[in-house]
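DATA SHEET
Item: assembly model
Revision: 1
Owner: S.N.
Input lines:
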Amino acid sequence: MSFAIIVHGGAGQLASEDRAAACANGCLAAARLGHAILAGGGSALDAVQAACSALEDDPLFNAGTGSCLNADGEVEMDAAIMEGTSLRAGGVGAVRSVKNPIFLARLVLERSPHVLLVGSGAERFARENGVDPHPSSLLVTERALERWRMERAKLIEPKPGTVGAVAIDGAGRVAAATSTGGTSGKAAGRVGDSPLLGSGLYADDRAGAVSATGDGEAIMRVVLSKVVSDRMAAGESASAATAAAIRELDRVGGQGGVIAVDRRGGLGFALNAPRMSRASIDASGREASGYDP
Amino acid sequence: MSFAIIVHGGAGQLASEDRAAACANGCLAAARLGHAILAGGGSALDAVQAACSALEDDPLFNAGTGSCLNADGEVEMDAAIMEGTSLRAGGVGAVRSVKNPIFLARLVLERSPHVLLVGSGAERFARENGVDPHPSSLLVTERALERWRMERAKLIEPKPGTVGAVAIDGAGRVAAATSTGGTSGKAAGRVGDSPLLGSGLYADDRAGAVSATGDGEAIMRVVLSKVVSDRMAAGESASAATAAAIRELDRVGGQGGVIAVDRRGGLGFALNAPRMSRASIDASGREASGYDP
């Protein structure tokens, strides 16, 4: 069995060609990181975590460092990770003082009897499991602060954004990961689709793995990632399944994008948003990246 | 079009025949309350909210008053409500000082741009929308406290529990509602399946409406309610869809139950747990209640 990975850096109306290209490049760097793990015999779970973590650390993306700010001007992040062999998963919602929410999600998967921890309870779980506190202020970039000021002044529209990765490893195991600062200007305590199994992500070795991005509330209402997964379980390719599923968002007036890998190692993506930055390395080792539909 | 409703009071190993019978009676009272709303021309959304609210106020059930306690000995509740015409939904997770979490979920549906609010952010939304603070201590029953003490002493096993209702109204609209105190002894900040669209509940006029109960983490990992909904969308009856979907829980070693109404007004339930208290009033007005499989 050959291995493959695809990552995205969020869907929406990107600011400029330069920025869009930079985001696609950031996605490619993350895909290469995950691919190296797969090439070394590592698991899909480790690969998607590493790719997601790299995107969290890249201030270009709305996840980890560079997260957008909520209505209070605070960072609150969501993330989740899932593996497709036994459907184990971990997620965190509305967490603040953590450098890499995807690492915390992995800890929930490994060490908690629960699947989803939120708010102060999730932070306490982090401390109890040796995750160092990371001051929120270190997560806030100049750009995020400027965007928040302009949104407050109604000069620009708030926007969503997420990063995500899906992969299949040499053993045929799939995994998915998502991480986000959420929709800018969101209410405190808002949890979006990203940490919710079936909505922001899904992984099942019998189908494939999926990660979604875009209007979180719309994605939740149609349970978008499960729709893609079910189509792949029925035999559709990742490409066909993502193309068909993205139309579900039209029903609820949402915009977004979705990436997937099917159980045969095929990669696919689809979007009904103007753009989605992404990058992939397929089973033959071929690299691709871009941002236009 | 005729109307119908089915409610459940949680799945699991109930303590005694007396208690099981009392729970079934409580479910029947809640079903009658929802049915009266439907009979008066009210919406499925109002009916499931009223039924759920009645079960929250009944200290027999693990929701609202009578909620079980988490590892810290605190009440933290989850609830959600969804309507199937335009897929609008509202949910709250890990909330403490609210008498009726399902009412707060309805407010999220009506007044928030978001679908899911958790923790202190959800409480703030409650206060901003005129919901009176309700001291947690008023939610804690003697029985919940005694159960918590015995669990701490390892004399009994922690158990999950949820209440839920689904209905179809005279206009053919469906809705679903769930509410819970969660799994007893859970970590602070744990959010279960109950407030998550596709997991604890789902409603879609093209399919029907679903509410699940049982091991929340297992339900989340298989996105149980969406599985039932998809089967009904493909033409299966509520009865057939629930019976088929409950087997998904076996894959992840979970126990639970599920209730559903299909778009033709047919009612169904299924469980792989030892018991699930429930009651229904079908399209011909016939009442039923019980707790054995």
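QC remark: Residues 275 and 292 of chain A are 5 Å apart (CA to CA).
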